[in-house]
Amino acid sequence: MSAAEEPFLMPVEDVFRLRQGREVLVTGRIERGGVHEGDTVETVGPNGGATALVSGIEHNRTPVGMAKADMNVGLLLRDVSADVVERGQVLVTPGSVRVHGVFTADITVLSEGQGGADVACGDRLRFHIRTAGVWGTVTLPRGTGTVRPLHGAEVTVTLEEPVALTEGQPFAFRHHARAAGTGTVTRLPH
């Protein structure tokens, strides 16, 4: 599938209300696919689920008719309230991405010098997925008591609030208020 055919996905970094709340400017870096002025996009993530019309696109403060992967852009959205668009969500081609509260991942814990600490089954960690930060609980494989610094494991993560996820999605996590490790989403429930 070429970049032009790949579904659009852009993490929401900032949201600005414009023209007495009738339009919303959303900024972020396009992760994949492309978007054209006049396209319909969907917000996915915490409090997401609304669709909006892209009525304008800006790249480097210049209006453009189309934007593609790896571009930092501002999208002017019409037909959506600023109250339903927030940092941590993603804008996507409608129906292409769903939210999940549980996923399987491969994680690696940083060294102790970098902030890594033992991760035990049931530990509550702060997961940073794209622009979302959400608390979650980690479940280790049967027979594994802890994951030590500089080691890895396949784990199940249960988030306290569902977020937009795709298989292969990288993330970072914090433990005891310190950067503790990284991971990659390997499986999502269907």
Automatic annotation (TrEMBL):
Keywords: Cytoplasm, Elongation factor, GTP-binding, Nucleotide-binding, Protein biosynthesis
Species whose genome carries this gene: Streptomyces apricus
Name this polypeptide is given: Elongation factor Tu
Record Pfam families: GTP_EFTU_D2, GTP_EFTU_D3
GO molecular function, one term: GTP binding
Residue span, Translation elongation factor EFTu/EF1A C-terminal domain: 97-187
Translation elongation factor EFTu-like domain boundaries: 25-91
